[in-house]
Design a protein that fits this description.
There is one protein chain. By secondary structure, the chain is α+β, with helices and mostly antiparallel strands. The chain has one domain: 3-Layer(aba) Sandwich (NADH Oxidase), CATH 3.40.109.10. Helix content is 39%, strand content 15%. The protein contains eight helices and six strands. Strands 1-2-6-5 form a four-stranded antiparallel β-sheet. Strands 3-4 form a two-stranded antiparallel sheet. α2 crosses α6. The longest helix has 22 residues.
Length: 223
Amino acid sequence: MPDFPFVPLKFTHRSAAEVEQAARTFYAAMDTRRSVRDFSSEPVPRSVIESLVLTAGSAPSGAHKQPWHFVAVSDPATKREVRIAAEAEEKENYERRFPDQWKDDLAPLGTDWHKEFIEIVPWLIVVFRKEYGLEEGRPEKIKHYYVSESVGIASGFLIAAIHRAGLVTLTHTPSPMGFLGRILGRPKNERPYLLLPVGYPAPGAKIPDLARKPVSEVLTFIE
C-alpha cells in the first residue's frame, strides 16, 4: 500500500472572538433544522445532490477507507418500488414487531407505516455502508475499520449540508432494509444504512413542536 503524501495544512487562524461568533452562527442555523414528512415535488437540480454528497464524503473515516456509497434516486418507477417495499416492512413493524413502548413513544410524532413522501419528494438519497472493499483483480476482501462510526459521521455531514443548502430531509430507517440493496442493485459488500428523502417542504408543512435538551443536560466540563 503506498504511503499518503503529507502536504501543508490549509488553515486560516481566527481569533477567539471570531471562533465564538462562527460557532454561534452555525449553531443558530442548525438549530432551525427539523425532520420533515410533508414534501413538495418541486425539482432539485442533480448538481445540488452531487455537492451534498461531496460534503458527506469529506467526513473522516477509519484508516481513510471511506466505507460508504450513496445512491441518489429520482426515477419515479424506482421510487414507487422503494415505497411499496418500505411500507410493507413498516406495516409489519407497526402491527406486529414494535413493542407497545416504542409505539407509545412514536405516537406524539404522528408517524405510521404510510410513506407517501417517498414518491413525492424529488430525490431519495440512500446511504450504504461498505462492510469491506472489493477491487477488480483482487480476490481478497479489503479490510474496513469503524464502518458504522464512519458512515454515521458522513450521514451527519450530509444532513447538515442538506439543511444549509435550504432543503429538508427525514432520517428514515425502514427495518429491515435489505430490499434497498436489491432494488438499487448494490453489490454484496454493501448494506443499506439510511434513507433520506431530500427536497423542499410542502406548502403549509407542519412539524411537532419539540424542544431540544439544554446544554446542561448534554455537556459535562472537566476543567
